[in-house]
UniProtKB/TrEMBL annotation:
Gene3D superfamilies named in the record: 1.20.120.1080, P-loop containing nucleotide triphosphate hydrolases (3.40.50.300)
Source organism of the structure: Hucho hucho (huchen)
GO cellular component terms, A-Z: spliceosomal complex
InterPro entries: HA2_WH, Helicase-assoc_dom, P-loop_NTPase
Molecular function GO labels: ATP binding; helicase activity; RNA binding
Domain Helicase-associated positions: 67-126
Protein name stated in the entry: DEAH-box helicase 32 (putative)
Lineage: superkingdom: Eukaryota
Keywords, comma-separated and alphabetical: ATP-binding, Nucleotide-binding
Upper lineage: Eukaryota, Metazoa, Chordata, Craniata, Vertebrata
């Protein structure tokens, strides 16, 4: 986060096992909350056990969380249990917006990788 404090190179952040509270996790969630004020387009997905859900929703906009989950589901980034699918894991590792990352992955099937990479490069410079 030192080189990219506003996480401009990322469209989605996935935090797994947020129920395992540590000082690092609390600091990370606090930083993300501050970043979201300036980056409403950033999607944060917090994976936790269901007993923590109510406490986490108190800090984040529930509609925004649902919108993020719906987008990840639409992109086939979540499996039937709500966990990251294989595609979701790959998408989360790419420093692109989730939709652009999925387009890049699918471009292989349509033999248009060069075109999608060009578009992704042009859009990421904005």
């Amino acid at each position: 986060m030192m080189s990219d404090p506003m996480l401009e190179h990322y469209g989605a952040i996935v935090i797994d096992q947020a129920h395992e509270r540590t000082v690092s996790t609390d600091i990370l969630l606090g930083l993300l909350q501050d970043i979201l004020v300036h980056r409403p387009d950033l999607r944060v997905v917090i994976l936790t056990v269901s007993s923590m859900t109510d406490r986490l929703l108190a800090h984040y906009d529930p509609e925004g969380l649902m919108q993020s989950l719906e987008e990840l589901d639409y992109l086939a980034a979540l499996d039937d249990d709500g966990n990251l699918s294989e595609i979701g894991i790959i998408i989360s590792e790419l420093p692109l917006d989730a939709q652009m990352a999925k387009a890049l992955l699918v471009s292989c099937e349509f033999d248009c990788v060069n075109e999608v990479v060009t578009i992704a490069a042009m859009l990421s410079g904005m």
